[in-house]
Amino acid sequence: MMFKGIHHVSAMTSKAAQNYDFYTRVLGMRLIKKTVNQDDTSVYHLFYGDEKGNPGTELTFFEIPNLAPNREGVSSISALSLRVPSDDSLQYWVERFDELQVSHGEIMERAGRKALEFRDFESQRFFLVSDEHNEGVKAGTPWKKGPIPLEHAIVGLGPVQLTVRKPQPTIRVLTEIMGFRASGQFSSHLENQPDILVFETGEGGSGAEVHVEERTDLPVQRLGRGGVHHVAFRVDDEEELYEWINKVNESRFQNSGFVDRFYFKSLYFREPNGILFELATDGPGFDTDEHIDHLGESLALPPFLEPQRAEIEARLKPLDTSLDQ
Q1: Which of 29, 126, 192, 292 is most exposed, with the fewest beta carbons within 10 Å of its own?
Q2: CB neighbours (10 Å) of residue 216?
Q3: Ramachandran bin of 93, using left for φ above 0, alpha for ψ from -120 to 50, beta for the remaining angles
Q4: What is the pLDDT along the chain (325 residues), one digit of tens a residue?
């Protein structure tokens, strides 16, 4: 068994409307599903992705109004990456970020690729990474109706960075249980800090990498707005997911067991440093209950929540997502 790459990442926001504006109008991603947190239906769960919401392109947010800011630290997913087609694309984004007053750094090299660090409106940390010399997991298809020229548009998720105080327990889970392989290391660009270690799965490349950063100088993360809740890895189908459930159980990790999210099936567990991992199937997909041309335009609820629609809608603050789809 081997994961096909990163499936999705889920983060925290306190303002769904501003989140929608930033990720669709500034970053040019498509809202592929407007739904609710299935574990707390009083709050939105927004999914962004490529043209079709393909696995490996999905960036999601739980909205919790009045949530305190994230305190960065260890035992965390400390940075996410978004893939763009070329090195030239990064210069396009520098100019766009300058124009729109988005906080960003300078173009740099990171894990053998050109990259550009930036922060969203809630100070969530991202890197745009160039696919120019990337090999491995195929990128997605950019959103044709978005505001970004297709030759520079975001085409999927790149490497996920984990920051931990003691890396070896995390590394053992990645390599001995989850089947990742060590594939390199690179400078952290911080003085007196060890190199960041690179692990990959499946076909490898930007869409299948986890970076492990060791930090002994930071407190434990306090998750808040601008922080990342979990990372999910791609499992081919439900049959394989059950094989992973058996393997995780045999490894004696407490876990969620099988969870039906309707758009995909999942398993959740925490690795030894407390970071939440999800294993998620590639299907059925986000066009299961909406036509591909109208993804994200209205509130979508899985069948097991549909009987509660009136009650759920009454608790949600209206969020108009129909204009740009």
Answers
A1: 192
A2: 10
A3: alpha
A4: 899 999 999 999 999 999 999 999 999 999 999 999 999 999 999 999 999 999 999 999 999 999 999 999 999 999 999 999 999 999 999 999 999 999 999 999 999 999 999 999 999 999 999 999 999 999 999 999 999 999 999 999 999 999 999 999 999 999 999 999 999 999 998 999 999 999 999 999 999 999 999 999 999 999 999 999 999 999 999 999 999 999 999 999 999 999 999 999 999 999 999 999 999 999 999 999 999 999 999 999 999 999 999 999 999 999 999 865 4
How far apart are the C-alpha atoms of 154 and 84, rounded to whole Å?
5
CB 53 within 8 A of CB 32: yes
Q: Which residues of 256-279 are buried (b: 16+ CB within 10 A; e: fewer)?
A: eeebebbbbbbbbbebebebbbbb
What CATH number is given for 6-284 in this structure?
Answer: 3.10.180.10
The rounded distance, in Å, linking the Cα atoms of 244 and 238 is 10
Asked whether 84 and 137 are in contact (CB, 8 A), the reply is no
Please give the backbone phi and psi of residue 324, each rounded to the nearest 5 degrees, phi first: -105, 5
Are 86 and 132 contacting, i.e. CB atoms less than 8 angstroms apart? yes
Q: Which pTM does this prediction carry? A: 0.97
Angstrom distance (rounded) from CA 181 to CA 183? 6
- Domain-wise residue ranges, the chain: 6-284
